[in-house]
Input
Amino acid sequence: MKRILVVDDAIFMRKPIGGVAAEAGWEVVGEAGNGVEAVALYDQLRPDLVTMDLVMPEMGGLEALRLIRAGDPTARVVVVTALDQKQVLLDSIREGAVDFIVKPFDRKRVIDLLAKLA
Amino acid sequence: MSGFNIAELMPFYLDETDEHIAGLNDALLRLEQDPADVRALQEAFRMFHSIKGASVVMGFQPVNRLTHHLESLFEQLRSKRRTLDRSVLDLTFRCLDDLRDYHRDLRAQGQSAVDLSALTTEVDATVRGETVPAPVSAPAQTPAPAKEPEPRPLLDSTTIEEPNRVAVTVVFEAGLPLADMKARLVLNRLSSRGRVISTDPPVERMDEAHPPSRFTVILAADADPAELRSLADVAGVVEIRIDRESPAEIEPSPESEGTPDAGPEPGPSAAEVSTVPPATADRKRVRVAETIRVDSDRLDHLMNLAGELVITKARFVAIARGLEELFRGSSARDEPNRIREAREQVKALGEAIHGLGRVSDGLQKGVLDTRMVPIGPLFERFRRVIRDLGHSSGKGVHLKLGGEKTELDKRMIDELSDPLIHMVRNAVDHGLEPPEERIAAGKPRAGTVSLLASHRGNSVVITVVDDGRGIDVDRLRRKVVARGLVDADEARGLSDRELIAFIWHPGLSTAETVTEISGRGVGMDIVKSRIENLSGAVDVRAVPGQGTTFTVRLPLTLAIMSRLLVRVHDEIYAIPLDHIDEIVETRPGQVYRVQGRPAIEIRERVVALARLDDVFRWGGGEHPSLRNGSRGNGNSDGDSRKTVVIVQNGETTIGLVVDELIGMQEVVLKSLEKNFQAIPGLSGASILGDGRVSLILDLDAVIEMLGRRTSRRVSAESTANGGA
Output
């Protein structure tokens, strides 16, 4: 079973993402509420995939993506973005995000994405 | 968010949004003190962003629009393109108030009538006022960031002959949001396997106004097609073609058949980035389930107790099995042995029961603890209230908080907000003097309002204290007379304390002291009744020239309370422990009469004696046992020993004569109103261990009723006959 780490400062967002992932046959191995937690949990859990919100307290998603990929260049991180965060999205694509999910997200699209990354 | 159950997410949305609004208030107050507080600015920006993101998912467009503009406003502040001034602060505070009201309605009714459009326009105008009026492409877009650098590598337009040129074309799902960014993602992923020669459409021509429906990357690469295919296959791509030749000669791949799509011409496409799915029609008026956050430690503790419960059960099973064997009548054992073994089993049973008692007590307390939350966050909200009151009244006000860690039942915290706001408001409006008057009186210019919470036995006591002028008793006396509540002669005879009690009178408070709290008038009489609805009590004390103190006393929890159980006739009554001062036994000669009523003297204090027969009637008359002529023990007036429970409501002390003391017990409160009917003097009923019903006395009401007993007897017809 593929293992996923869900990173978002809102439970409100983590819950649906985790729910869809579980339905799509992924094991949600961890949840993080900010970038610092995400980096620590990534090191500890080494999941197959991370979904990463961009705007978070303490440390944002872009910085966390950088640190995670610096520690593990094979890390696969999907960025969760709003429509108007194109600059930071572009930066994260450059930093090696494997894909992105647009908020508000469409369930089918998330399932499609997870299927492609499984 | 299509495909998700919105109703299920609603409690999370509301809780998180409430937290964000509280956090925003806090951040703004910090910014008001120090406009250069970068951290507060960042937090405010992030929280507006979060509300915006969440509201669009839930389909609350008005919230989304307002927070979108607020986010833009804070982006300007954050990037130092605007300075935070009074008008921006006030505007933002007003937005927070309306957002709070909007979500309060949403929580209560599943929809909201609060109109956010005027504020949205105002914030938008403020945002635009700063920048040169630039044509904003779509309302849902923030002003574009200065320059958008393109992903590495830079495109190589000078075509060099490569032996193995590959054209990778992806076709995007119709209406895919941020398709231009998907194209950049595909480009970036492919660029890891080869050198990008060109793209179609060119990257610089793609933006949200011209989203590509398909995207071709011409790559100089040795990679095998399967690998390129997997790199290009990001979410939202419905079709991939890989061709060794030029992009013009692409053949559709097998899986592409039947996909309706526009031709491969670049440039503007009819497809638009759809921003937001239309609000779901099935979002009807759903009342939102109440949620509560519980420390995981507390849940772990409950888990442990549940585990112990299982172990205890196993012990009972073992004992039962042992007893069964013992009594199966095997003749192998002789009678003395059997008795000895049975005795051992009974002993084990006693131990098991003791263990069960321990676990069930722990479980009861543990479950209650899950409902307990600290009062701190409620108190914190008053920073904002005090700020606004200080501004509107022109008085400098300091807020002092104490006992923020005191825990109370979550429901009580929710219900307390309005009454506390009113008391605080009253303290600022009526308690604190204007600055000049304070200075003349030798007080600091700014007044202080304190909110303090503490545990006292089984109660939580919350006080609202101001250091103002106290209550002007003479003015109150004139007002009471002017309102016709008492006549002038009577008013002259009233003590200060009696007069002050009039501030709870609806005739006075609604007329004179009502103030608007976020659009709802709450008078002091409402404050009193709200707190009484929580089984609490409120009291006010004032010292002229020194200040006023409101004291609210609340039970720790609404569900379970410690009571003294007593027997009167053949019924069992429960008396709240908080109201009991002491219990005394009187000898025959100690009871004497004051104004025709029995009374006793306790420590140089005369306490009137009363029986429940003085307030209650059974089926319209005396208690059945009296009608039959068989009087209960110690029921006669002054000629026998009596057990007297001395009770008080903070003002009046009364000795309640009971027939028997049963003991203290935790009782679970059940509403009489819900199951039967409301009876003055009784706050509810509870079921005792032996299945009998005990009636829980509402002592505040009982004492009040006894105070009026000369005028009339309150009939409590068809009082539940617990003994029957």
Q: What stands out?
A: The helical segments of chain A are 11-23, 35-45, 61-71, 86-94, 107-117.
